[in-house]
Amino acid sequence: MKKELKSLAILTLILVSFTASAQRERMLGLWSVEKVTVGEENMTPVAKWTRINADGTYQVGNGWLQNGSGRWKYEVENNRYTATDPLDIADEFGGFSVSFHGTNMRWQRAEEGMQVEVSLVPVEELPRSPADYLKGIWDLVEITENETSILGDFDPENKHKLFIRWDRIYINFTPEGNRWTGYWHIHGHKPEVTLLPDQENGTVESWRITVNEKELRMKGISDSNQTIERHYVRRNTF
Q: How far is CA 88 from the centre of its chain?
């Protein structure tokens, strides 16, 4: 009887070890965050991803920007994944319980009495965010106010261009031939960009954007521009 119990205990340990190893292997790789819910609210960030490496390290980011890294561990007894970034604020809520649904991975935990659920999908390449597409030279081809074209009055000589740089600086080539500079800020959860001019009399304005390899569309959402829509095309020269 003792031998049978001992054999059963050894078998159980082997099965637990095998399960833990299999679960750990499934977590490895590059994952894109498909959806984040906090309670009933959708809090999905833009182009969020995490890369979980076999050596116990991980990286996280948004689009082509990596903004975190550290070490991770997996606790077998409660299927819990915990990531620690030495440069980040300490995570007071602890790790996430891990489960798999087909090829997707799901993380769950409680934060301040609310259920948090993160759905991740495996990907081969880093997801691109609007910020990644924004960089470049944009030539204005249409501008409307209250859905009526004002291009002929606003930019009759086709001088206006918007140069958005990777270092979060933009240069506004105005229709009058001036070059105004400032900083651009992308929203972490919405396709919205805010332009903050350096000039003292400049107006801070936010825009809802649609952008890809070839074109940029901007719809004003500030008090000063909410009736304005702009359509740009990408250029490779000034």
A: 17
Within 102-204, strands assigned E span: 104-111, 114-122, 136-145, 148-149, 161-164, 169-173, 179-186, 192-197
Report pLDDT digits (tens) over 179-231. Answer: 999 999 999 999 999 999 999 989 999 999 999 999 999 999 999 999 999 99
| Count of CB atoms situated within 10 Å of the CB of 211 | 23
- 3-state SS, residue 81: strand
What global pTM score does this model have? 0.84
How far CA 52 is from CA of 59, 70, 116, 222, in Å, comes to 7, 10, 20, 40
Of the candidates 141, 184, 173, the residue with the CA atom closest to the CA atom of residue 238: 173
Residue position matching structure tokens 């990596």: 66
- Distance in angstroms (rounded) separating the CA atoms of residues 11 and 156: 81
User: Whose CA is closest to 69, among 80, 54, 81, 84?
Assistant: 84
- In 3D space, the residue among 93, 94, 97 whose CA is nearest the CA of residue 80 turns out to be 97
pLDDT tens digits, 100-143: 999 999 999 999 999 999 999 999 999 999 999 999 999 999 99
Q: How does strand 169-173 pair with strand 179-186?
A: antiparallel
**What one-character-per-residue DSSP string does 24-64 give?**
HHHH-EEEEEEEEEETTEE-PPTTEEEEE-TTSEEEEEETT
How far from chain centre, in Å, is Cα 74?
A: 25
